[in-house]
Design brief:
Number of helices of chain B: 12
Largest interface: A-B, 69 and 70 residues
Shape of chain A: globular
Distance between the termini of chain A: 62 Å
Helix content of chain A: 25-40%
Oligomer: heterodimer
Strand content of chain B: under 5%
Helix content of chain B: over 70%
Radius of gyration of chain A: 27 Å
Number of strands of chain B: 0
Number of strands of chain A: 26
Number of helices of chain A: 16
Distance between the termini of chain B: 6 Å
Strand order of the largest sheet of chain A: 8-9-10-1-11-22-12
Shape of chain B: globular
Strand content of chain A: 15-25%
């Protein structure tokens, strides 16, 4: 048999020719479509929002599931928020307003919430929305078989619910909680269609049905998730201006994990918007007249380094204060995020209820004073520059997880360099297994974490002294004062008094160098100029109700 | 021949079982837990986490989990993703065509470029073409795909706007990833073809052919190249395996669908059933490809045909 002949050469030449043709053909096509988008990016016209069109939106990672009760990833919430509504909404001023619930009353003991529900709402599969549906949802989250994740944590201290009539439901709590309404506003406690949940069981995440402004169309694994306008939608909350169905025909969420590709696909106009823009690109895109850069700070706890107060010498106030004075947080945030992230000053982020702006600029680096504090404690600098006391070296075990999310590993390295100046030897441990090292074994002196949360009660699970039978908190703080304030803050009905409590807590935490707050994480979106009306909810998640594409 | 195929299939089965046990063990021993990506440990109580682990069955001892897994496989049940209960098999089936297309296109690029430059470079030994081909080969072998991929996006998507930067719908989205992945293979093939061509050219029978008065072109392409091809075919077979592995990086860089993306996400999330499913699937594909390569020798080289 003739395996190789002259034909082979001809076909190779032909293949080459075809490739050249493909190249040129493709070039032509792309140029044409680019021309269209270019004209679309013409100066934005204000006025009536254009209807129709598809928004392509690049996500940084793949959502885990579109079942809100099972999801554990923020990226999933961006899609989940378009499909599901919540009972209430939290406005940027932290007030709670109606959504699927029109009004509510709270019993004097704070243990039961009675909601009146909207009567004109139906799920995207036609199922009527009513008190039974709400009860079904919260019972579903409590049911272990659902494998509910963060939703189960958010729903606490919910105990049971009673259907009063078709559009009235009473939720019973085991303890009062001022955070409860805020938690109900979160997308992870969004209301799913009972019909769909029963039909699909644990596959609801692939067949999501809610009452939201967009209906699920399809999910191609690792490629894209498509949702389309829910034409019946007429119950948008006060946080958006368009109360009816969205202007967009559809949204195509593309999954583009690689940063350079994600930003590149906005720049080459293959997608109209992309989330999570790295700092260096934020700077260039801000200067580019063809694009806009949208940024929303998130509520809750900023990225914070927690001292483990059960390990010497960090149980001593002076030792912690020395570190607080030696770490130049400004330098870290400016170097790593090029001025695009805000520096954090408090255990809460700005905008969170009770945030105390008086803490801003309250701590300034002071190496001399830091050295003095360590001298006072009897730590003496040795020949190698590291301090020792009773033959023991002054070390600080700094634990951080992989992957290097938001350059957090680089923060560890910078802290290591800065603390060298005061003779502290920082051992950096980067581990995949944060849960064992930090939460189970407690083998850290310093560990960083953040939390997106709608209420300052988030501080409770970090700073309240822990039950010895249960898992320790990160800072392992045991202050009867802070405990009392946290307990009061959880139930205080008067907002002014509640604010005061949280300000006391914030001051205590900074004054006692319990933590080093580092940065406030902004959710960033790079978009073509043609994308109008993209807004964010109070947790920093995008809202697409008002979005239109200018032609 | 039939005996050889049977023997190969039995060995492959053992290899597949072995790799499953190995991967299972590695993932079990590695730090981390599937629930890490599902619940925020600073928010959820230990009871919530314990309950979730129990529901997922990851609180069982190692041998129980392993036996349970093989038991299900034997019943044709590849399990569900721990993360979101997606059945594993449809998940792979949905993504595999994209990986196949990428691997196919990359092999095409490798073989076309590799053969062409390899032969030209051997014929024009030490000439300008040879030097250019060798430099291209060197680049292909040394450039990591995550770097060359981003470079291609920068040039052909952002600057020139010829090809899309991402996606896996339509042939246009295949061009850049296939170039990124194919260049690696072509580098190896260029070197391989060039070396074996030079070796064959220096052999006695080529001298004979030339002295017989056969046209140089016929000597080169009909006789020399054919003899030089055998190592190149083996190389291509091995390359297909490398390329399947290479898709892990390239699919992520170009945001393509594919089993490479699935397995890298699953490893990060310690989503064992998904990892195992992809391993099993790729092991089968790899084994089949190698079998086909071995069989193809018999077509190229009559000596192999006679000895089996």
């Amino acid at each position: 048999m003739k395996f190789y002949s002259k034909n082979r050469r001809k076909s190779a030449a032909a293949a080459l020719l075809v490739m050249v043709m493909l190249l040129s053909a493709c070039g032509g096509k792309q140029t044409a479509s680019q021309g269209q988008t270019d004209s679309g990016a013409a100066p934005a016209v204000q006025g009536a929002s254009a209807k129709g069109g598809e928004l392509t939106y690049a996500l940084a990672t793949s959502p885990d599931t579109l079942d809100p009760h099972r999801s554990g990833l923020a990226v999933a919430v961006r899609v989940i928020r378009t499909i599901y509504d919540s009972l209430v909404v939290q406005l940027p001023d932290n007030t709670i307003k109606p959504w699927l619930a029109t009004e509510w009353t709270i019993s004097d003991d704070g243990l039961s919430y009675t909601f009146k529900l909207r009567k004109d709402v139906k799920f995207q599969d036609g199922t009527p929305f009513n008190a039974e549906a709400v009860k079904f949802n919260f019972d579903r989250i409590l049911d272990p078989a659902t494998k509910a994740a963060n939703a189960a944590a958010l729903l606490q201290p919910y105990k049971s619910s009673e259907v009063i009539d078709e559009y009235t439901i009473k939720l019973n709590l085991s303890t009062p909680s001022r955070a409860f309404l805020g938690n109900l506003s979160q997308a992870l406690l969004g209301i799913v269609s009972p019909t769909a949940a029963k039909q699909y069981g644990d596959q609801l995440g692939q067949h999501p049905v809610g009452t939201g402004p967009f209906k699920f169309v399809k999910w191609d694994e690792n490629a894209d998730i498509k949702v389309e306008r829910n034409p019946d939608y007429a119950w948008a909350p006060e946080i958006v201006t368009n109360t009816g169905a969205p202007y967009l025909d559809s949204i195509d969420f593309k999954i583009v994990p690689e940063e350079a590709t994600r930003i590149g696909s906005v720049q080459s106009k293959q997608v109209l918007a992309a989330e999570t823009v790295p700092p260096q690109n934020i700077l260039t895109l801000k200067k580019d007249p063809n694009f806009q850069l949208l940024q929303a700070n998130t509520l809750g706890l900023p990225y914070t380094l927690f001292f483990n107060q059960e390990r010497a010498p960090w149980n001593e106030l002076k030792a912690r204060q020395a570190v607080q004075l030696a770490v130049d947080v400004d330098a870290i945030v400016k170097t790593l995020y090029l001025g695009t992230y805000e520096r954090a000053w408090s255990p809460l982020t700005p905008g969170t209820f009770g945030y105390d702006p008086s803490l801003e600029n309250s701590v300034k680096p002071d190496i001399a004073k830091a050295n003095q504090l360590l001298d006072d404690l009897g730590w003496v600098k040795g020949a190698d520059g590291v301090r020792t006391k009773d033959g023991k070296k002054l070390t600080l075990h700094y634990v951080d997880g992989t992957p290097n999310r938001e350059k957090r590993n680089d923060i560890a390295v910078m802290v290591q360099q800065q603390l060298k100046q005061i003779g502290v030897d920082v051992e950096v441990e980067i581990t995949k297994d944060v849960r064992t090292v930090v939460y189970t074994n407690g083998n850290y002196d310093l560990y960083g974490n953040s939390q997106v949360n709608s209420d300052p009660n988030a501080l409770y699970s970090f700073y309240h002294s822990y039950d010895p039978k249960s898992r320790p908190t990160l800072p392992r703080l045991a202050s009867p004062e802070v405990d009392k304030w946290l307990e009061e803050g959880r139930v205080e009905k008067d907002d002014a008094k509640r604010e005061e409590l949280y300000q006391k807590i914030q001051h205590y935490i900074i004054d006692n160098a319990v933590i080093l707050p580092i940065y406030v994480f902004p959710y960033t979106v790079a978009a073509s100029k043609s994308v109008q009306g993209l807004t964010f909810d109070s947790l920093g998640y995008p809202l697409f109700n008002d979005v239109s594409l200018q032609k | 021949m039939l005996w050889m195929v049977t023997r190969r299939l039995v060995t492959s089965l053992l290899v597949i079982i072995g790799s499953l046990v190995l991967v299972f063990t590695i993932l079990y021993v590695l730090p981390g837990d599937p629930t890490d990506n599902m619940v925020d440990p600073s928010m959820a109580t230990p009871e919530v986490i314990a309950n979730l682990r129990h529901q997922l069955g990851v609180d069982q001892p190692f041998h129980i989990q392993l036996l349970h897994y093989f038991g299900s496989i034997l019943q044709g049940d590849f399990g569900k993703s721990l993360l979101n209960s997606d059945p594993v098999l449809p998940k792979i089936a949905e993504s595999f065509p994209a990986t196949l297309a990428l691997t196919g296109a990359s092999v095409l690029v490798s073989v076309t470029v590799g053969l062409l430059l390899g032969v030209l470079s051997a014929i024009h030994r030490n000439g300008a073409i040879d030097i250019i081909a060798r430099v291209i080969g060197l680049f292909g072998i040394s450039m990591p795909t995550f770097w060359s991929g981003i470079l291609l996006i920068l040039i052909f998507s952002i600057t020139l706007g010829w090809f899309p930067a991402m996606g896996s719908d339509g042939w246009q989205t295949l061009v850049l990833p296939a170039l990124a992945l194919g260049t690696v293979g072509s580098g190896f093939i260029i070197r391989m073809v060039r070396n074996s061509m030079l070796e064959v050219i220096s052999e006695q029978f080529i001298v004979t052919l030339r002295s017989k008065g056969l046209a140089e072109r016929a000597v080169m392409y009909r006789h020399a190249l054919r003899n030089a091809l055998i190592p190149a075919v083996t190389m291509t077979g091995m390359l297909i395996g490398d390329m399947l592995a290479g898709t892990v990086v390239v699919e992520t860089v170009f945001s393509r669908q594919g089993i490479g993306r699935i397995i890298s996400d699953a490893i990060m999330a310690k989503d064992l059933p998904v990892v195992q499913g992809v391993i099993l699937f790729s092991a089968i594909i790899y084994t089949l490809v190698n079998l086909l390569v071995d069989l193809s020798y018999t077509l190229i080289d009559p000596r192999v045909r006679r000895s089996t």
